[in-house]
Amino acid sequence: xxxxxxxxxxxxxxxxxxxxxxxxxxxxxxxxxxxxxxxxxxxxxxxxxxxxxxxxxxxxxxxxxxxxxxxxxxxxxxxxxxxxxxxxxxxxxxxxxxxxxxxxxxxxxxxxxxxxxxxxxxxxxxxxxxxxxxxxxxxxxxxxxxxxxxxxxxxxxxxxxxxxxxxxxxxxxxxxxxxxxxxxxxxxxxxxxxxxxxxxxxxxxxxxxxxxxxxxxxxxxxxxxxxxxxxxxxxxxxxxxxxxxxxxxxxxxxxxxxxxxxxxxxxxxxxxxxxxxxxxxxxxxxxxxxxxxxxxxxxxxxxxxxxxxxxxxxxxxxxxxxxxxxxxxxxxxxxxxx
Length: 338
Prior knowledge:
The protein contains twelve helices and twelve strands. The chain has helices at 14-29, 79-82, 87-92, 122-134, 145-153, 168-171, 215-222, 226-229, 244-252, 262-271, 297-310, 312-319; strands at residues 3-4, 35-36, 94-99, 112-113, 119-120, 137-142, 159-160, 174-189, 207-210, 236-239, 257-261, 275-291.
């Protein structure tokens, strides 16, 4: 049995998305308790949601439809990879995973919850597939985005997962096992006059929303002087741990641009009426994090590579409509781009 905790970076936004979509349409016209997680590790319905399975087509803008097919339960354990795990893990059959909770459709395609409260999403399917290959279960414990990596460092969590991009600073304190490529992109509302963003100077004079303690904050802070260098007003940055205020800000004009993960913003643009994807300025490999020099880093990487080799990896990405964002090979601690 897998247990989960509570507390997260992005709260439920089903109602918020509906309200914001309506507001954006009007403008165009004139963010710990425990429960059981039945989808983790060896569950027969890992990653599946209630409803008819089979279609991977992206729903229309404003739709809250989510893919439902099961792409995980048929994956078999590989004894060779199980043998790579530390003896204590093989004995317990469990790894403690630290992440943040995303109720509703918050954080999709990375992570969310279906109507029954079961975790869903690309990251959920990927971690459950990895657990299946390794022959273990996840004990999922929820924290906040800024506390997951420290939790891995101090031993509270065996593994951390929260769309953590590989950076020089992070590689100094944890090890990475990569499983996808994500980027740094921009989303605007219909009131935004920009049609694309190709550099930070395109943001000069605008109000930009992003999440604190993230690579996005790092990029905006490092580039803060660029506007003055070209004789323009600086951009103003507002930090939000929740998605709801960002979407409301886009709707009422208090926020001009949302700066966030490429996969999430492309998903938002396809599902939330009145928003538009404005482009990506950089890309970063993303991975599971483990304690520095942890013996878990290699088996996690080898499990991802087995999924790539046997085709299960591609099926997971196709399910969530994000083909082209996977890695050709998982690596331990690749050279950082940030």
